Amino acid sequence: MESNHSLLIEKLKQALVECKTEQELIKIKADFLGKNGSITKEFEQIKFAEDKKATGQVLNSVKNEAEELIKACKSKFEKIIEDHYFDISQPGRDIKIGTRHPITLTINDITKIFNSYGFSEVSGKEIETEFYNFEALNIPKNHPARDMHDTFYVDVNNLLRTHTSSVQIHSMLKYKAPLKIMTPGKVYRCDSDPTHSPMFHQIEGLYIDENVNFCHLKGILIQFINDYFGSNVEIRFRPSYFPFTEPSAELDIKFRGKWLEVLGCGMVHNSVLENVKISTKRFTGFAFGLGVERLAMLKYDIKDLRLFYENDMNFLRQFEGIK
Ligand code: DAH
């Protein structure tokens, strides 16, 4: 008898170890303690026992032990449910959808316009050598134009590009002429005030082909300003100096009664073409470089350039919905 009882308990323990769900536990309980359960059935033996009282007591303790074991298993399931409980009636968290940064919006706007004029987008590197950033662009060592650039040097040979003009050299060496490219990207100068940031963005344009002249340059840039701001912007070309263009000009637009400079441009200097082995007899070209922040500030009426980089959500949210 004894061993039969302990066998039943052992079987029950085994069943509980393998039990995975509450449903299974209900079945196990029925199998052992239900009306026809194997432990319940043992109670029928009392009437054949010599010492009915003692047998009854033993069976009761077996039954109690079985009940305890089943209860322990049940509370294990309840604990799992408790640990994984969440209130399905709670409202969901408000998920804010991000927006494009105004600088990204502006770059997209500008490149889309130049793309419609046939300029293909190429990308360049932000760490450059002096050759690409200066020398090949006709800015030799000790040239005063280098001072204006306030360059960040990475080490003796490498620097953070001070303008996207370096991509002109890479592109002409790689693709030769004819060529019609634009290249947006970050540039770096050791400079910081409400209208200057140590990192800012430029878009460079370069068009090299046979018979490209200053009229093409003017025509495309006037068209661009009108497409970007909408028509009726007063524009002037002002003679200027850049080592890599000849003649050079700056384009100003009239904004709130004042002339504001928005880009530099000019006919690609013969020395630059020679540096990249493009025939100056056959090809001519124009180039321009514009400041993205400057154009974004004008379009969205932003007074302090540093707002673009402070990650202030109140500022950035204002561009929600602009594509
Ligand atoms: N690289 C000049 C700057 O950062 C801008 C510039 C002027 C680019 C004239 C040009 C250009 O391509 O033709 O100030």
List the keywords.
323 residues, alpha+beta, BirA Bifunctional Protein, domain 2, 7-stranded mixed sheet, rod-shaped, binds 3,4-dihydroxyphenylalanine
Provide an overview of this structure.
With 323 residues, the chain is α+β, with helices and mostly antiparallel strands. It contains twelve helices and nine strands. It folds into two domains: 2-83; 102-319, BirA Bifunctional Protein, domain 2, CATH 3.30.930.10. The chain has helices at 2-18, 22-33, 38-42, 52-83, 102-116, 130-133, 144-148, 166-175, 214-229, 270-275, 292-300, 313-316; strands at 120-121, 127-129, 158-160, 179-188, 199-209, 235-242, 245-255, 258-268, 284-291. The strands form two sheets. A seven-stranded mixed sheet has the order 1-4-5-9-8-7-6, sandwiched between helices. A hairpin with a 2-residue loop joins β7 and β8 (258-268). α5 crosses α11. The protein binds 3,4-dihydroxyphenylalanine (DAH).
